[in-house]
Automatic annotation (TrEMBL):
Pfam families: Methylase_S
Keyword DNA-binding tagged: yes
SUPFAM superfamilies the record matches: DNA methylase specificity domain
Entry-linked InterPro entries: Restrct_endonuc_typeI_TRD (IPR000055), Restrct_endonuc_typeI_TRD_sf (IPR044946)
Any one GO MF annotation of this record: DNA binding
Keywords: DNA-binding, Restriction system
Identification of the protein by name: Type I restriction modification DNA specificity domain-containing protein
Domain Type I restriction modification DNA specificity: 10-88
Region (Disordered): 1-21
Keyword DNA-binding part of the UniProt annotation: yes
Length: 101
């Protein structure tokens, strides 16, 4: 490889495929994270699409997800193989907590 291209360890890139201000939830860990800078997301996380949410509501959503992080992490136990959180389980969980929002 020549030129000025930077090399990074696995999962890092000098380019981004997600914008700053994005919430992700780890598929394996259930960890809720708010990204303040553009980043490269891999397939090991759920991306919360919030294009139609106002900034204040978005911060409230992030805090709500953080508050329920333990419940999100426990979704891993619903998967018989126990390796990661299934999309349908996360969707059901999110819909149930957002009904109170």
């Amino acid at each position: 490889m020549g030129g000025n291209k930077k090399t990074y360890s696995k999962g890092k890139s000098e380019r981004a495929n997600q914008n700053a201000g994005t919430i992700t939830i780890g598929r394996d860990s259930g960890y809720v994270h708010y990204h303040e800078k553009p980043f490269w997301a891999l397939s090991n996380c759920f991306i919360i699409n919030t294009k139609n949410i106002k900034d204040l509501e978005y911060q409230t959503l992030y805090k709500l997800l953080q508050k329920n992080q333990k419940g999100i992490k426990n979704l891993k136990n619903l998967n018989k193989k126990g390796k990661n959180i299934k999309t349908k389980d996360l969707e059901f969980f999110l819909n149930s907590i957002l009904n109170f929002f």
